[in-house]
Amino acid sequence: MVLNGGLNLSVLDGWWAEAYDGLNGFAIGTGRTNTNPDLHDARDREDLYRVLHEEVIPLYYQRDRDGLPHGWIKPHEAHHPHPRMVDLTPTAW
Predict the structure, then answer these.
(1) Among 56, 76, 83, 64, which residue's Cα sits nearest to residue 3?
(2) With 60 as the cut, is the pLDDT of residue 87 above it?
(3) Which of 25, 31, 74, 75 could pair with 8 as two cysteines, CB 3.0-4.6 Å apart?
(4) Whether residue 8 has pLDDT greater than 70
(5) CA distance 11 to 61
(6) Dihedral of CA 66/68/69/70: which sign?
(7) Rounded CA gap, 68 and 21, in Å?
(8) How many angstroms separate the CA atoms of 25 and 10, rounded?
(9) Which residues pair with 27 in a beta bridge?
(10) What percent of the chain lies above the pLDDT cut of 70?
């Protein structure tokens, strides 16, 4: 989950390799690299398509009777500990 509250989908390098916990977004690949750039790109491409097809798209489009994608919403709630603005607003004016 990035600071703006969105789920991340990225290769496991840099900050995402440190932040990714399996619940806060989606990983492309396993973080391994290859000195052959064509092979490296092919692995990333294949894994990107797999993650989109098997994880991201089903999670987003699986909706309940009210049309809510609870599987998509759950990681946002779990990784966004800050209270909502509406919860901070006094109820009696």
Answers:
(1) 76
(2) no
(3) 25
(4) yes
(5) 23
(6) negative
(7) 24
(8) 9
(9) 10
(10) 74
Give per-residue pLDDT as tens, 39-83.
999 999 999 999 999 999 999 899 999 988 888 877 656 555 555
- Return the C-alpha torsion angle 33, 22, 57, 48, nearest 10: 0
Query: Is residue 2 within 8 Å of residue 75, measured between CB atoms?
Result: no
Measured between its terminal Cα atoms, the distance across the chain in Å is: 35
Token pair in block for residue 43 = 């692995």
Alpha-carbon distance of 52 to 64, in angstroms, equals 21
Rounded Cα distance, 24 and 44, in Å: 20
Query: CB–CB of 34/14 below 8 Å?
Result: no
